[in-house]
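dumping this here before i forget
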Amino acid sequence: MGILVERTQDCPYVSFTEDGILEIEGRSITEDPFSFWQPILEWLEGYCSKPAPTTQVTIFLEYSNSSSNKYISEILRQLEEVHGKNTQVVVRWRYEQEDEAVLQLGKDFESIFELPFEFLEEDVEKERTRKVKIRSKKTGSEAIISYRYWDAIVRNGHGDEYQILQEFS
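structure:
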């Protein structure tokens, strides 16, 4: 069983699955980083004892304070220990266009850890406007949803339950 933490104003969205898809997205400025990050680290420790053949880590931060950066560093350290032994780890570091601070944070992590990093610049405004129209194969109901929401449906294994009718950009 994975771990899923909904995004709040001070805490990022976290979705770690046993299939090796680990995602952190949003702002991490929690007043109590231990209470937020410790259950995630504990889950990761169990995952690392029997990881998926491939582990894809996607980190997309708006902002992260130094306390949170220490926990993200610990996540990457645990993954570094199993990379090449029990799993192949890839870190996809996403950052908003022209956000040099978040890009530099990713570069700093890349210089510390022996993990492959990919850096992906994102046009956040364009992503917010992307929509997709879907139809439920079960009920026939239709909906227009954000592409980000559609991506989450697919990642969670429910994409086969819907038919894409139209994509909007």
